[in-house]
Amino acid sequence: MFVVGLTGGIGCGKSAVTDCFAALGVPIIDADVVARAVVEPGQPALREIGEQFGTDALLPDGTLNRVWLREHIFSNPDAKSTLEGILHPRIRSEMRRRLDEFDTPYAIFSIPLLFETGQDKSVDRILVVDCAPELQISRVTRRDQASEAQTKSIIASQIDRKSRLAKADDIIDNSGTLDDLRPMVELLHQKYLKLAH
Fold first, then answer.
1. Rounded distance, CA 184 to CA 106, Å?
2. Residue list, annotated binding site for ATP
3. Superfamily of domain 1-27+107-196
4. How high is the pLDDT of residue 51?
5. FRET pair for 146, CA 20 to 30 Å: which of 2, 83, 153, 189?
């Protein structure tokens, strides 16, 4: 199946774009959703995280202690790569498994860190959702109750905007409203249907 990899910086509105594609009947396989599924209780990844990082990585009810883990890997590159080594292969294979469940001309892999994790090589086309950095910051601070400094540090941890745009096959400028967005998605949908055949 033809696979479009959709990505973009935090706050650029990837979810709004995938919602528009989903409304047109396009399957969306979201890396963030899959990432949560692979660490549910009983999953091998959760057990391995517990073995590698100890009891602090798990909450008393046996679920993942996301807050502790996020803080632990933030300042520890070795821990971060250990965690990625546990999660990324499982996320990739689960996304491929979910893809096999659909019988449509094309599907979308929504992957926030598409380039950072090297998954740009595993898709047929790359769609980048973009907007001005000022708009990203205002959206994220409003949505996540994050400070401007936190938001800027997240943006800085992602691939820079210029490099992301340079690697795109298609770009959606999501600076406007949902009404602005729908016709852009519709145009790309028609384009992807042609490319998929």
1. 17
2. 11-16
3. P-loop containing nucleotide triphosphate hydrolases (3.40.50.300)
4. 94
5. 83
